[in-house]
Amino acid sequence: MTRDTDRAARPGPAAVTTYIGVVGPSTANAAQRSAAEIVGRRLAEQGWAVVCGGLGGVMAAACRGAAVAGGMTIGLLPGLSRAAGNEHLTVSIPTGLGELRNGLLVRATDALVAVGGSWGTLSEIAFALRTGRPVVGLDTWTVSPRTSPTGPAGDTLDTGLPAIIPVASPEEVVDAVRTALSRVRGQDSGTE
Length: 192
Hints:
single chain, alpha/beta, Rossmann fold, seven-stranded parallel beta sheet, globular, disordered N terminus
């Protein structure tokens, strides 16, 4: 049996108030894995939970970094088996949704960090930007809205769409996320 004071002293789900998605290719190269590990560690050092797709590549590297720092890692797995998750997950959630879990991942987070890029990463970035989640990008896709005032069917396009916040190194990610979250939270009316 644990005492309330023991529980309050340990980090756990109740202590985590910020959830940051880390996305990138499952077939990441060595530089992307190294960067993702640093990102995961630095996010965990802030007391933020790392949420990812739960598999290998960037996802496993970010979880490894967060785990080394004693952080919480949450994997939203594409299949139905918890065993498919990487070994650094604190919480492994099988969704059975395949790539559709990308939308769930975005909705479960306060901001997204993209390290590298694959088609799945691009979909997560698009979901995040569409739903108003800040996206910090390290060596990832560039996405910009069309600057034309009308689309091909004559519809008006919103040229004030959000963009990916680019950073040049993993060391810059935490400051970029913190700045983006303070902007979003300052504009948030408390409803979603």
